[in-house]
Amino acid sequence: MSVIKTPKEFFGFTPGDDREMARWDMIVEYFRMLDEASDRIKVIDMGPSTEGWPFLQVIITSEENMQNLEEIRQTSMKLADPRGLSCDEIEALVKKGKAVSVQSMSLHAIEIGGTQMSVNLAYDMVTGNDEQLLNILNNVVFVMVPCFNPDGQIMLTDWYYENKDTEYEGCNNPMLYHKYTGHDNNRDAFAHNIVESRYMGDILFHQWMPQSYQDHHHQGSYGARINIAPYTNPLRPYTDPLVWRELNLYGAGMAYHMESQGLDGVSTGAKFPSWGHYGYHWIVNSHNIAGMLTESANCKLASPKYIDPTQLEGDNDITQPAYEAQTNFTAPWKGGWWTLKGITDRQYHAAYGLLDTMAKNREMILRNMAKKALNQTQRGEESKEYAFIIPQQHDKSELLHLIWMLREQNIEVKRAVKPFTVGAATYPEGTFVVFLAQPKMGVIMNLLSEYKHVDNQWTRNKQGAHVSFDAATDAVAEYMNINCIPAMQKFEGEFEIVAEIEEEPVPAGNKFMLTARHNSSYRAVNQLLNAGIKVYRKNSCPWHSFYVEGDEAQLKEILTEADCFPTPVDEAPEMTQVKPLKVGVYQRYYNGNADEGWTRLVLENFDFAYATVMDKDVLDGLNDIDVLILPSDQSPILLGPDNVKGDPSVKMYLNWVGPQPPAYHSGFGMEGVAKIKEFVERGGRLLCLNKSCDFAIDYLGLKVKNVVKGLPLTQYNTNGSTLRAVVDNKDSAAWGMQKDSLIFHWTAPVFQVADMFHAEDYKTVVSLADKNVLKGGLLTGEELIAGKAAMMRCRLGEGEVVLYGMGVQNRAQTTGTFKLLFNMLYDYEK
């Protein structure tokens, strides 16, 4: 091994030093230098990030293990799915196998400590030779993702140095710290809408199936210095109990290691619930991988932050209501200057403590990996559901999208080779079936089954409201309006494993219908329009499907690229030409708006052209667009910081963002309100998503009442749930939709016409069911919203305002309602 530069020698400082940040391009260079210099480390470039930076997988283990890495990887995968192996075969794998831990850093780019720490940890593991480290290297394969969000890391580093030595040093950056998702990138673990999620899914579920996964984060500044495993209650359902015990083992090991190093302020099992969002450190628990996070107290990016002792507070109303020593928080930090080094030291030793615990318990951990898989397989075999049958759907493209998502999780999906019968129902050849008798039954149940969020003492806040940490259901099949039929009895048939989804070739012809039932048809339409080809909609039929004709070779190329399902026809129907509208999406500062980013991603995924609209564009009159989309946001943020009086939640948010340079102040004010109203009155279309509906109602003079506005969560809450709705699919806004549909709902506005003289100016497109509104998740206040409007078109002058009281494109996951947005981005030649 050649002489290796220390991080300080390479960067000119030690990452973690006050007021310094190593930039990702230089960190990549450092890891590649380590790779060239040492046989203990292997650096794999998984590919480009969203904006083109390298996404690295770094493997650290002993030289001997590195020589046998593929065998170790295969052993880990076999222990994760030991079906068909004898007890002796499993035990042989346990004896020769190595524990595998995947740990990722700084998924939220503003939480800079993990990526800075990764350099120091890698250097020490590559160069150290003490007995404890050698035991780790011999018994554990450490798979590190030193930066989960390279684009954001570059952005934050540049932002920090741009403002260093000014009054804005250490403030949060003004824009989303990922091109599309911002803080929401860890909510993409089951949908894989962004490439970084796909890389991580490949590492976790297809390459390694590790026994542990830890994701290093930051949190607020005024509680424990670091929160670590285990989680608190409530438990997420369908998880093997051994997972929760492993999290206790790892948490105790990490806490013991950190406090033995003199690091105070360590809290275990105090803050984050086991049933959180279905991001990576939570979803892996359903994969039988012990998934956990560290959450370190924030400073001001790389700048120290002074914290007065009187500012310190407990992290949880139930488990840690006061900032004082208790059994899971034995050595509270006393206050003072909090630094980046305080963060990187604790994350370093949390990562190291986890590896040490796994090295000391290697055989038990590997044996239990197989045991968890067999336990879950047995539970699936005995489950009353037995399997989920996924027949042909209203939207074939989204059916195949769902199958792709399941395969991304490495869930075993089968396809019927011949027709089969379950009870009185017979299903045709080609029907997809997901049997629960497999190790990933917990993932399957969370993504495909109907379930309600648990209501107990752990899910009631101190006001008594039933709440969920994030979305109350992660049943993505419901988000997509895909009907997954639980088979409530065992059945037989001939099935094959779906390895990949084969594309259907475009039929011969130069005249095609594209059904409006399929989301993929909208992508095809936009690609055709972008190529200068005229597209039409059929004047009649339930869906008002699209028609196109032209050069056969050109059509075949475009329709193949669009991955759609065209039907050849002999002649054109009675039809009207489709006119694409010029679309603008409003974007603000103050750390950006994730809903705006997801909206852009959805539009790009379906090839809708759009322009970004900033405050100046609003004030200039919006003369270059036909449609303005206001992503979900609160009125005071849209109007600007001078309008936050009396709104404590907005004040709290802006206080978290911190002071911003004047160039990055946001809000279009009352002058902008007038310009938006003028835009609509002269014929423009304003689409208000979710929370921004209140802006339109309150400031544009719509005679619509949000019947739940201002209600406390004790009276009204849906918290990310699926609700039953009725769609008027004869309205052009809903062409292609099913009449009875599900919508995703996050305590959204609910509408009622308040115009007593011109009610004809208002049209309900989607209404909530009259009863039994809740499908999955939680619902408080059904009596307030049953039968009320969830989407409404409101005439205003020559134009219209469309109110979406739902997450119509939430996190690019609610594909079952995309058409309600897409249809509003077209007009038709008169």
Strand content: 15-25%
Largest sheet: 10 strands, mixed
**Distance from first to last alpha carbon:** 75 Å
Q: Any idea what the radius of gyration is?
A: 27 Å
Unreliable parts:
none
* Total DSSP E strands: 35
Helix/strand/pairing class, anyone?
A: alpha+beta
Oligomer class: single chain
Shape: globular
Tally of individual helices: 26
- Average pLDDT taken over every residue: 97
Helix content: 25-40%
Q: Could you name the key traits of this structure?
A:
alpha+beta; globular; 26 helices; 10-stranded mixed β-sheet; 830 residues; 8-stranded mixed β-sheet; single chain
Write a structural description.
With 830 residues, the protein is of the alpha+beta class. It is built from 26 helices and 35 strands. Helix 4 (69-80) packs parallel to helix 13. The chain is globular.
